[in-house]
Amino acid sequence: RPSQGGSAAGAQAAQMYLGNIPKGISEGLVVAECAKYGAVAALSYHGNGGDLLVEGGWALITFGSPDSVRTAVMRLGRRSGLFGSAQPVEVRAATAEDVLRDQQAKAR
């Protein structure tokens, strides 16, 4: 799982955010796609309304290194139709706000 607490800034450096993940995409598919760019240490997957498979789901992917995040963001960000989506999937390095949002969602 992504680090929590005082080490959140360090964990954030090795995390990528995916937003607007289309309905029907499994955690396994997200991990398989991301693993093409480096070792995936953890995945935290969230959907809207408590349903993990609703339109507009999001995920924080923790890689083994910040270099893997940079590579994944660069390559996935260029791909249209990621996960078969007609809408663009948001791909970027995770921010402190993303990490906080993830921690709050897990606490519910």
Strand order of the largest sheet: 2-3-1-4
Rounded average pLDDT: 83
Span of the ends, CA to CA: 16 Å
Number of helices: 4
Radius of gyration: 13 Å
| Largest sheet properties | 4 strands, antiparallel
**Outline:** globular
Question: Which regions are unreliable across 5 or more consecutive residues at pLDDT < 50?
Answer: 1-7
Helical amount among residues, as a percent range?
Answer: 25-40%
Strand content: 15-25%
What features would you highlight for this structure?
4 helices; globular
Question: How would you describe this protein?
Answer:
The protein has a 4-stranded antiparallel sheet with strand order 2-3-1-4, sandwiched between helices. The radius of gyration is 13 Å and the shape is globular. With 108 residues, it is α+β, with helices and mostly antiparallel strands. It is built from 4 helices and 4 strands; from the N terminus they run αβαββαβα. The model is unreliable at 1-7 (pLDDT under 50).
Topology of this structure?
Elements: H1 8-13, E1 15-21, H2 27-34, E2 40-46, E3 57-63, H3 66-77, E4 90-93, H4 96-107
Antiparallel strand pairs: 1-3, 1-4, 2-3
Outline:
By secondary structure, the protein is an alpha+beta fold.
